[in-house]
Amino acid sequence: MPDHLRLGVNIDHVATIRNARGGIDPDPARAAALAEAAGADGITVHLREDRRHIRDDDLDRIRAASTLPINLELAVTEEMVGIAERFGPHAACFVPEKREERTTEGGLDIAGLHAQVTPAVQRMRAAGARVSLFIEPDPVQIAMAARMQVPVIELHTGRYADLHNAGDTAGRDAELARLTTAAKDARQRGLEPHAGHGLTFANVGPVAAIRDLAELNIGHFLIGEAVFSGLETAIRKMRTLMDQARA
Q1: Distance from CA of residue 178 to its chain's centroid?
Q2: Is 194 designated active site?
Q3: 6-246: CATH class
Q4: Mean pLDDT score, 79-98
Q5: CB of 34 closer than 8 Å to CB of 44
Q6: CB atoms closer than 10 angstroms to residue 50
Q7: Closest by alpha carbon to 86, among 47, 28, 31?
Q8: Which residue out of 46, 53, 156, 164 is catalytically annotated?
Q9: What is the pTM of this model?
């Protein structure tokens, strides 16, 4: 089990702000460089089919701006897999995607969609990417991920975050236990478990303390917090909270 819990910073919503007005500012490539300076371990971006935040031409500029590994989130579609094959990210994380959603609403149902997901996984493995699947902390989904022989899964922490925000202590603790069990299950099956979605300064500690987790991916909160304190300051504080929880 890793002592150092990696932090992947999702910079999508820097591009969301840019796209709200058009033009070139704020630049997600600059955010990638700042994230590296602040102690992030990786950069995560989600190239959506509707291009609502990161755009195709951002990818190479982000790569040029930082030496950190890039984790490209993508839907299981021919277009996205083709783009990912050409770009060649360090990691490729398959996520569910619906055009009408504001953000990812849950994990990818790889048990129900295995016939569709498996060829995409094989293509990205052949392209040299470290393939990950964004799934619910559910034993059926984890077992299917192991069957697909992916090296990594990312556990959806959105329900935990929602219960925390609602003040539902019992529900939050039950979901935290579910995440803890799922991370242990993944480790026992030879998978490296990551986690993310909805994590903030207020709720990251208990998740970061799950010893089996190797990485957290955090984005929206950090970009929002940057409005008040600056991006480097926000990332450094998150890094400190994660380290304190792991210690």
Answers
A1: 19
A2: no
A3: alpha beta
A4: 94
A5: no
A6: 8
A7: 47
A8: 46
A9: 0.94
Name which of 194, 190, 114 is nearest 148 in CA terms.
114
How would you class 106 by CB atoms within 10 Å of its CB: exposed for 0-12, middle for 13-18, buried for 19 or more? Answer: middle
Is 80 exceeded by the pLDDT of residue 116?
yes
Q: Which two tokens stand for residue 150?
A: 């992916």
Nearest of 50, 91, 96, 48 to residue 71 by alpha carbon = 91
Amino acid identity, position 25 = D
Q: Residue 46 catalytic?
A: yes
Q: Which two tokens stand for residue 4?
A: 């150092």
Domain boundaries, the chain: 6-246
**Has 73 been annotated as catalytic?**
yes
Label the pairing between strands 215-218 and 6-10: parallel
Tell me which of 73, 154, 215, 225 is the catalytic residue.
73
pLDDT band (50, 70, 90) for residue 101? very low
* Nearest in space to 121 (alpha carbons), one of 97, 99, 151: 151
Catalytic residue of the set 13, 156, 164, 197:
197
CB 65 within 8 A of CB 9: no
Q: How far is CA 229 from the centre of its chain?
A: 23
